[in-house]
Design a protein that fits this description.
Mean pLDDT: 84
Low-confidence stretches: none
Shape: globular
Structural class: alpha+beta
Distance between the termini: 33 Å
Number of domains: 3
Largest sheet: 6 strands, antiparallel, barrel
Order of helices and strands: EEEEEEEEHEEEEEHEEHHHHHHHHHH
């Protein structure tokens, strides 16, 4: 999202009907900060609440401002010729600019989500036409120049009563013909079945779409603008929304994505099923997405941390999508009780085991002994996708043990054993990343031939510089 600074008049928290000057600053890094200014002490008592549900105000451009879930950060004061001036700073969870909501929970009829690389992914980055570069036929006074834009055929999907579509909005700058320009904004439009849906109820859908585009482009993609629409008689009001992105990971804002996993054209005919599958599995697989995204396009992350993240992502993916126990829960419970009986009886008495050691066995080793090991989980995933992986450079076929030994070494930093370091560790990271991508693409129903084609290009030319 873009940085913003707004100045205006704001209601003082805890002082209904009283106003003061203030300034709102928003950056994606720090979120929404509002500074309230006052000359003198009669309005700014130190007993004003530390947390308030909302602060409302009006900008100097007559735009209504509403700040939600505000917590006080600090109070500062200075003395001058006009008396003592105090500044109170609040951190707000979100900011809404453009409409004077009556209730405490801003609600919208639909939401527009703008992302930096969405137009590139959907192959809708044009047209951008500068009319000064266009040659027009000879004309005479009274002739009309008409420029037309044909709306492309874009997908629309209904999921759980919510319509999700990729939409376009042509914009023009026609002040003078020689300076005129036509461009197209591309965005997601989210339209619930009901009217006036609270903003908080949109956020899961927004996060799912952000994750989808980030995965398709194989790099974290943020949101640069969020617009809520409120339908009122005879018009629709646009409300600009700002909030601090979460999770706070490095996000791309480039104009062109390379080495992507898939584009809209690749899945256009099956986009509805793919989007429905993504939403259906998102709650279970969200931790996998975020572990994966944290390693993408992040040169600041150590290779050791990337290996740990991606290993955890695959372990989580297998546990949540496959399961992975040797016995059923009930069967193992019987085995577990026998183990505890043996531990507390004959075994403990023979060796005089201390309580902290038996507790470790009871709550740790024995409690989780029924779960598959990391090596077995990796082996099952590699076996399931072996046909695809064999076509790709840097695959993990036959390298399960190297991943396990390296993960264990990086976790405990004890004996190195067969752990790999240096260039070989980077090769393992590429293989782990590749396996995460292959698993998730298969979950979405992306055809295997497309996966091989795209990922062959993605990994073929990788080298360590």
């Amino acid at each position: 999202m873009e940085d913003k600074i707004l100045q205006g008049q704001f209601q003082i928290p805890g002082k209904e009907g009283e106003e003061c000057g203030g300034k709102v600053e928003f950056t994606p890094e720090d979120g929404v900060l509002v500074k309230l200014f006052n000359i003198g002490d009669e309005l700014f008592v130190d007993k004003t609440p530390d947390r308030v549900r909302q602060i409302v105000g009006m900008s100097t451009d007559a735009e209504p401002i509403r700040l939600h879930q505000c917590s006080r950060k600090n109070i500062s004061s200075t003395s001058g010729s006009l008396g003592r001036a105090k500044t109170k700073t609040y951190h707000a969870q979100s900011m809404f600019v453009g409409y004077p909501f009556i209730n405490n929970n801003p609600a919208f009829d639909d939401l527009e989500v703008y992302q930096p690389l969405l137009a590139d992914w959907a192959d809708l980055s044009g047209p951008v036409t500068n009319l000064s570069d266009v040659t027009f036929p000879a004309s005479k006074p009274g002739d009309i120049l008409r420029v037309e834009y044909t709306q492309p055929d874009l997908p629309s999907v209904r999921i759980n009563g919510i319509e999700i579509e990729i939409a376009t909005k042509p914009t023009t700058n026609m002040g003078q013909v020689d300076l005129g320009q036509i461009s197209v904004e591309v965005f997601w439009r989210i339209t619930p079945r009901k009217n006036q849906v609270p903003f908080s109820q949109y956020m899961r859908t927004v996060q799912n779409l952000q994750d989808l585009l980030s995965f398709a482009l194989a790099q974290p993609v943020g949101i640069w603008k969020l617009i809520g629409n409120v339908d009122i008689p005879y018009e629709s009001k646009d409300v600009e929304i700002s909030y601090q992105p979460s999770p706070n990971i490095k996000q791309s804002d480039g104009e062109r994505a390379h080495n992507v996993l898939f584009r809209l054209d690749d899945v256009h005919s099956s986009f509805e099923e793919i989007l429905k599958t993504w939403f259906e599995k998102s709650e279970v697989l969200t931790p996998v997405f975020h572990l994966y995204f944290a390693t993408q396009d992040n040169s600041a992350m150590y290779v050791q941390n990337k290996l740990l993240n991606l290993t955890q992502a695959l372990e989580t993916y297998h546990r949540r999508s496959v399961g992975g126990t040797y016995l059923s829960e009930q069967e193992y419970e019987d085995v577990y009780q026998d183990l505890i009986t043996f531990l507390n009886g004959q075994l403990g008495q023979r060796y005089g085991l201390k309580n902290d050691f038996t507790t470790h066995l009871r709550k740790g080793t024995f409690r989780h002994a029924n779960e598959y090991s990391l090596g077995k989980r990796l082996g099952e995933l590699i076996s399931e996708h072996e046909g695809t992986l064999r076509e790709l450079h840097w695959n993990l076929i036959g390298k399960e043990r190297a991943v396990v030994d390296t993960r264990n070494y990086l976790t405990h930093y004890d004996e190195k054993g067969k752990a790999v370091l240096g260039k070989e560790q980077i090769h393992l990271v590429w293989g782990l990343q590749q396996l995460v991508e292959v698993c998730l693409l298969a979950e979405m129903g992306i055809p295997e031939n497309h996966v091989v084609e795209q990922m062959s290009d993605r990994y073929r030319d990788r080298e360590i510089k």
